[in-house]
């Protein structure tokens, strides 16, 4: 059991038999009345965000989570197949459980959140950013670099992101896996 004073980002809670990750929390001490905690919780199964307010000092059921590195091998009709880095055990994870799955390519390392008691995989997290190659984009016009205009580009994983006009086919770019935004060109 944990108290609301123990809340931290990424903590997993069991609320009425459903698992939630804490995305954000804020301790509020109003001038009048008791203190409380506002949280944004993400449902592990559906990915939906829930806003919940707790009275300060309330006890909640914490779920013990282990982070394990897995390497992506291939995708088939059962899901995405991964291999544990140390034990070489292979598992299959559905695409809905992987954050940023559109930017996943063979050989990438992800962090899997494993329920410690039941050994079930709850979700996977990609690295904050990945480097991918552009397979198709419209050619930029010479002199179009003065404006802050973006054009669509298809990456080697099949994902489409918006990039500046000076980016061409074959170049490598860094992409944020959380929101799919272009960050920079990589040489």
Task: Walk me through the structure.
There is one protein chain. By secondary structure, the protein is mostly beta strands. The chain folds into 3 domains: 61 residues, Roll (SH3 type barrels), CATH 2.30.30.30; 61 residues, Beta Barrel (OB fold (Dihydrolipoamide Acetyltransferase, E2P)); 58 residues, Beta Barrel (OB fold (Dihydrolipoamide Acetyltransferase, E2P)), CATH 2.40.50. 0% of the residues lie in helices and 55% in strands. It is built from no helices and 17 strands. The protein has a 6-stranded antiparallel beta sheet, with no helix packed on it. Strand 14 and strand 15 form a beta hairpin. 17% of the residues are buried.
What structural category characterises the helix and strand content? Answer: mainly beta
Number of helices: 0
SSE order: EEEEEEEEEEEEEEEEE
Strand content: over 45%
- Main sheet: strands, sense, barrel: 6 strands, antiparallel
Which range best describes the helical content: under 10%, 10-25%, 25-40%, 40-55%, 55-70% or over 70%?
Answer: under 10%
Distance linking N and C termini: 49 Å
Cα radius of gyration in angstroms: 21 Å
Q: What is the CATH class designation of the largest domain?
A: Mainly Beta
> Could you say which overall geometry the principal axes of the C-alpha atoms support?
flat
Mean pLDDT: 89
The CATH topology of the largest domain is SH3 type barrels
How many beta-strand runs? 17
